[in-house]
Amino acid sequence: MELGISGKRALVCASSKGLGLGCAKALAEAGVSLVMNARGAEALEAAAAEIREAHGVEVATVAIDVTTAEGQAAVLEAAGDIDILVNNAGGPPPGMWHDWDREDFIKAIDANMLTPIALMKASLPGMMDRGWGRVVNITSQAVRAPIGVLGLSNSARTGLTGYVAGTARQVAGSGVTINNLLPGLHDTDRAASIDTGAAAAGGITLEEARANRCATIPAGRYGTADEFGQACAFLCSQHAGFIVGQNLLLDGGATNLTM
Ligand code: NAP
After folding, report:
1. Cα 151 to Cα 99, 101, 105, 106, 157, distances in angstroms
2. Ligand 1 mean position to 127 CA, how many Å?
């Protein structure tokens, strides 16, 4: 499908690996030039080079922690007048409800709620002036159904979701859409490290740990970063202008909901 966004410009945060990289690749495939970001320069440069080679689009890189004020200033400066913003960052660590103190919550809220809000606040006015824009926030299935050990993620991402619900409706009249993509289990480094931990804790092999988790997903498999990226590119496309303030679960049916 022709997405109609060739020549647009996107900032894709936290995009040297995993879901962010999937989004960067799919946007580049649609002809979008990119500003990519991650903390580690080596993987970021390798990913950017691969995308330039594969899709012939311009790719700038900013190796910095996007959850810091300096990081946000740096990516915004490199990004300039963007048409598309994809918000992403690493998720907070697991634990139990009684483990976390104020500082842990502040850190999670900074990374997974206030960082995307800051980047939206900075980018939305230009998009609205130009009469076109797309924002996609990568959140989590935990927004629809809580994951007990991810209380920090449940809290921070639900806060972001509330902000988006109101803001999306305030900017839609200017041709700007904001939507959230909610990943369930996807085959990324993060999933591999959780499987490794589960294997060690349960005294089982990595393959058994993975099979156990796949058995909880009606689709019978993990999602891929590539298919996640294609969903992101569609939400950023010309065809998605009437999709406003939605939370799209990409979880192979794992979250047992009627709506
Ligand atoms: P991943 O494979 O570990 O990749 C994370 C990417 O983000 C890397 O490029 C990493 O590079 C970058 N990154 C992390 N923290 C950053 C920061 N502070 N500033 C800039 N870049 C940063 O993770 P993923 O699986 O794609 O997950 C992406 C998001 O989706 C996370 O918030 C995760 O919690 C959420 N999620 C994932 C799943 C899943 O199954 N994969 C499910 C639900 C929710 P550097 O380390 O070099 O910075």
Report:
1. 10, 12, 9, 13, 10
2. 26
Predicted pLDDT at 197 = 87
The residues of the chain scoring below 50 in pLDDT are: none
pLDDT score at 191: 87
Strands 84-87 and 133-138: parallel
Tell me the pairing of strands 247-250 and 176-183: parallel
Quote the CA–CA distance of 70 and 56 in Å, as a whole number.
Answer: 30
Rounded Cα gap, residues 163 and 156, in angstroms: 11
Q: Answer whether 222's CB lies under 8 Å from 191's CB.
A: yes
> Could you tell me which residues come within 8 angstroms of residue 195 by beta carbon, excluding any fewer than 6 positions away?
206, 209, 210, 213
Give the position of tokens 């085959």.
Answer: 187
131: CA distance to ligand 1 center in Å? 31
How far does the centroid of ligand 1 lie from the alpha carbon of residue 89, in Å? 5
CB neighbourhood size of 216 (10 A)? 11
> From residue 34, how far is each of 6, 30, 76, 203 by CA, in Å?
11, 11, 12, 43
Q: Which of 58, 47, 66, 48 is nearest to 138 (CA)?
A: 66
pTM: 0.98
- Cα distances (Å, whole numbers) of residue 184 to 98, 181, 245: 25, 10, 19
Q: How far is CA 249 from the centre of its chain?
A: 12
CA 85 to chain centre: 10
Cα separation of 211 and 191, whole Å?
Answer: 13
- Is 133 in contact with 124 (CB distance < 8 Å)? yes
Q: Check pocket membership of 61 for ligand 1, CB cut-off 6 A.
A: no
Q: How far is CA 46 from CA 14, 40, 63, 130, 160, in A?
A: 14, 11, 12, 33, 31
